[in-house]
Amino acid sequence: MAVIKVRVPGKINLTLEVLHRRADGYHEVATILQAIDLWDELALNEAPTVSLQCSLPELEGPDNLVERAARLLAASCGVTKGAAMHLQKGIPVAAGLGGGSADAAAALVGLDQMWGLGCSHERLHALAVELGSDVAFFLTGGTALATGRGERVAPLPAVTPAWLVLVSPPIALPRKTATLYAALAPEDFGDGGATERVKRQLAAGEPITSASLVNTFERVVYGVFPRLQHYARLFRDAGAERVHVAGSGPSLFFLVRSQQEGRALVERLHASGLAAWCVRTVASGVEFR
Fold this sequence. Notes:
By secondary structure, the protein is α+β, with helices and mostly antiparallel strands.
């Protein structure tokens, strides 16, 4: 019997603006992250050593962010205990939906409780930043502004609940993030204005619309990912009027007016052979089950 179970949502970026390349080689970004109800679940048992089993066995191994998070937390806090962990994937892999980062956050929070560490949010945030730019967001989830290279996270007013349809095309790209950043030209860089406008919408309680959504990678992503334009066309043919790229891709999404409309669109996408989900925005991050 698992001692602890935690689940964690995926995410989309309502805005993703790349501002400039920094002297340290990273890029400065301004992005509004939004949690969605597509979930991974991590089960934790006490054990003498750290180990991980996954519903997708190809993800197992020491490079998995769950194992890395466990070892980092143990080293940071002087923990000599282990953990037998089982990860059930529901978030598509390497899809721009933050699944790996979400799993790392789940490991930090779940193991902190199982090992009785009582780490402060600030300490877990510092460890999350060591693991990756998006990991810190999932500690709280909901709606948040991320700046710097994505590691500085500030909560924002919750978005008016919205439904969207996601498509995850069966395509992959080695070194995806580095390749996409390398494809950007100086004229692609933004000034953060789109993100500021969406912040004002959220503060005013206004709903998010397709016209609000901005992603710097939109111009280059279709040239970088093979056949992504083909899948976007299938999405539009099924009824998506305006297709958006989720994060750094290749997942695509479309805002719908209701769950009923979203489910009907998903049925048409499934008939075209596409993996698709109708999901809702959520105001949570890691949750204990």
